[in-house]
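Long-time lurker. I teach an intro course on protein structure, and each term I like to show students one example going from raw sequence to a predicted 3D structure in token notation. This year I'd like something fresh instead of my usual example. Would anyone be willing to generate the tokens for the chain below so I can use it in lecture? Attribution to the forum is fine with me.
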Amino acid sequence: MFRELERLFETIVREVDDGPIVPDVTAEQIRAHLDRYNFSEPMPLYDVAADVKNMMQTWDVQVTHSRYLGLFNPSVTFPSVVGDALAAMYNPQLATWRTSPAANEIERHLLGWLAKQFGLPEDNASCFTSGGSEANLSAVVVALVHAFPALREEGLRHLPKQPTVYATGQAHHALSKIMRMTGLGRSALRIVGVDKEFKMDLGDLTARVEEDRRNGSAPFMVVATAGTTATGVIDPLPEVVSYCRSHDLWCHVDAAWGGAAIMSPDLKQHLAGIEGADSITCDAHKWFSVPMGAGMFFCRHPEAVHGAFDSAISFMPAATNGGASDPYVNSTQWSRRFTGLKLFLSLATLGKSGYAAAIDRQAHLAVALRQALQATGWRIVNSTPLPVVCFTRDGLDAATFVPKVQQRQIAWISQVTLDKHAPVLRACITSIRTTDQHIRDIVDQMNTIFLEESAPVDSLGCANAA
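-- Reply from a regular --
Happy to contribute to a lecture. Here you go:
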């Protein structure tokens, strides 16, 4: 069975890499095609599956393509695909330990090992989530209940002061949603200034916390980022952790993407300080190269997690003995699929050394990209050891340049605005199949487009060669 699945996987990988990255399709075209499915009569499974495969390959951006240099959507390992397939076929329910002992213990073992990589104590609380947003939501809820225990029964309206959270403008925008979802309100999120490298400014953090306390608010949490979406920046974690400890603030590190660097002997030094965090977010479906969605939430305070999420329901199986806990009383989710199996199989098959090699290789490719860009007149405008490269050059119009790169199927890159300046280009190495040759070809072809755009135009509207 698995050999056949592997052959299909390899076929799809080849077809994706041989095909376009960006689709040329309208919503009307897709909707017209889907009109054939009125669900009034049964249809042959294999015909429908073949049609869906064709739609996904033809009408989706191919984020697993070797020249996809976009957001944190990786190509995936084959063992992780097997894990997803097994989880779907057996369909275990991980709400309680008694319903799925094997699945729950596999996840407990895996999360425990990963927590130790981050330097958290063995008696930490951790769980799989749908993604980074749920993990960050979990962190805010746990920190909030930990700081204001009465909230569990009385709710926000009985709090004597306005709770406030601190993060930079480079932090993930899911925090804004979380402020609304928790009832704190967007105004409770204080935006901390950054230095010239877009890292959290500790002086500004200090000033904002002190001002809020003087004005009657109740600061309770700081969110540092380890690998920001726009620039890959890592906030000064040791300093942030130290400040939070000395000022009675919960320190959460959003390492949804950059956390995987803990696997690399060369890169993990840049995450120094994360071991002191109260909680951590890390997404397996980003730099661990497994299918969507597999977020992870780690917390050094099991009692705080249980205090935020515990529940007692008569129809659920009785709690287990022997130290095993039920996920539904320690997380935001109730019914949940076997999310961790895809990462378990991938990590067990590749080993820590295999992951380290893949991560280091992508970091190397980012260095190669920076060097190739600088050698041909581009400027790098971000500073990070992680494989996100932001770049520009004089005369560049990012708004017209990016569509041309995508339409010509050169690569999938994006544009980003940093600190209110003109938009720049952003490329992130996310695929385990991207090569040095891909990088050289992409830079060469981007240079060709730029020269075309900047070439003088004669009276007939034709570009003249320089």
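Some talking points for your students: Confidence is low (pLDDT under 50) at residues 457-461. The first helix runs from residue 2 to 18.
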